[in-house]
């Protein structure tokens, strides 16, 4: 089972600009796709990105619940960053394929709290230096080793952005060994709504010319300076604008525009909405956004 800012931001782009920006982003990604080069042992890329990332699997341990906690480790050269699952307009989302694995059932990725960067007016969300990404797998045959093989597509950026692919493989033993790097990454995950003391959560949905505007009102303590809110949906073909946010004490109001490929209003399942609040101190993840004012 793959899981796949709240400073005041400028007003959303005019209607003609949004499709242009989406098309330009897709064209940029397609052009950069010619640069990435996958190798079986680590990652290389042609040109200026050569040698900026090393990728490995940390084998981890078997949990008391019978799952296995491993991790993908991406080590980056100084000044380079990689991206979170919802990378913003300035980022490249990571993707995973598990073909070639053995004794592999379900897979759950546990994302640590990311950082928010704004460069040239584009917001990107990700990690600098090193990313240890915990991966929890359920063996098909409990009590026996798992061979985890992964092809990972991810982006790295400094002054340029380059998509890369890496193939990694490791045997996850039936017992394994505790790894403090994975423990630290798990401890840095976003808090749940209950853990963060989130109170009332309500969403208002309004049609716009090319989709919907989703406004969430959340009773939640601040998560640190330069708060950022990120809205996500399971359908990644829906373009979601950077959130515009306002805070009044313990209440946060954030809104984003949701634009599907056909650029028309659509039926939104509110239970599918995931809202992540990211700050310097912590992050909070909220699942679902019921109707209300």
Descriptive report:
With 293 residues, the protein is mainly beta. It folds into two domains: 33-187, Immunoglobulin-like, CATH 2.60.40.1250; 191-287, Immunoglobulin-like (Sandwich), CATH 2.60.40. It has helices at residues 17-32, 180-187; strands at 36-38, 43-45, 53-62, 68-76, 81-83, 95-97, 104-109, 115-119, 122-128, 130-139, 146-157, 161-172, 191-192, 201-208, 211-219, 228-232, 239-240, 244-248, 251-259, 274-278, 283-287. Strands 5, 6, 8, 9, 11 and 12 form a six-stranded antiparallel beta sheet that branches. Strands 14, 15, 17, 18 and 19 form a five-stranded antiparallel beta sheet that branches. It has a four-stranded antiparallel beta sheet with strand order 3-4-10-7, covered by helices on one side. A hairpin with a 2-residue loop joins β14 (201-208) and β15. Residues 1-48 have low confidence and may be disordered.
């Amino acid at each position: 089972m793959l899981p796949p800012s709240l400073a005041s931001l400028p007003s959303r782009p005019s209607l003609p600009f949004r499709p242009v920006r989406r098309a330009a982003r897709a064209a940029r990604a397609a052009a950069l796709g010619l640069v990435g080069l996958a190798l079986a042992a680590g990652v290389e890329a042609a040109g200026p990105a050569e040698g900026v990332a090393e990728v490995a699997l940390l084998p981890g341990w078997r949990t008391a619940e019978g799952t296995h906690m491993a991790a993908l480790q991406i080590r980056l050269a100084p000044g380079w960053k990689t991206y979170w699952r919802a990378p913003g307009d300035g980022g490249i989302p990571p993707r995973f394929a598990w073909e070639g694995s053995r004794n592999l059932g379900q897979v759950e990725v546990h994302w640590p709290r990311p950082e928010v960067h704004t460069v040239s007016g584009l917001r990107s969300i990700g990690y600098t230096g090193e990313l240890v990404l915990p991966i929890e797998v359920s063996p098909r045959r409990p009590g026996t080793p798992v061979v985890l093989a992964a092809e990972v597509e991810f982006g790295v950026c400094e002054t340029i952005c380059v998509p890369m692919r890496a193939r990694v493989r490791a045997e996850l033993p039936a017992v394994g060994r505790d790894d403090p790097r994975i423990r630290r990454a798990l401890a840095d995950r976003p808090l749940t709504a209950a853990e963060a003391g989130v109170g009332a959560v309500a969403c208002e949905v309004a049609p716009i010319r090319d989709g919907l505007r989703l406004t969430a009102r959340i009773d939640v303590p601040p998560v640190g300076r330069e708060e950022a809110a990120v809205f996500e949906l399971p359908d990644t073909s829906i373009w979601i604008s950077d959130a515009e946010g306002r805070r009044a004490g313990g209440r946060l109001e954030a809104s984003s525009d949701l634009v599907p490929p056909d650029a028309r209003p659509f039926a939104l399942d509110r239970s599918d909405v995931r809202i992540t609040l990211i700050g310097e101190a912590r992050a909070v993840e909220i699942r679902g956004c019921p109707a209300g004012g």
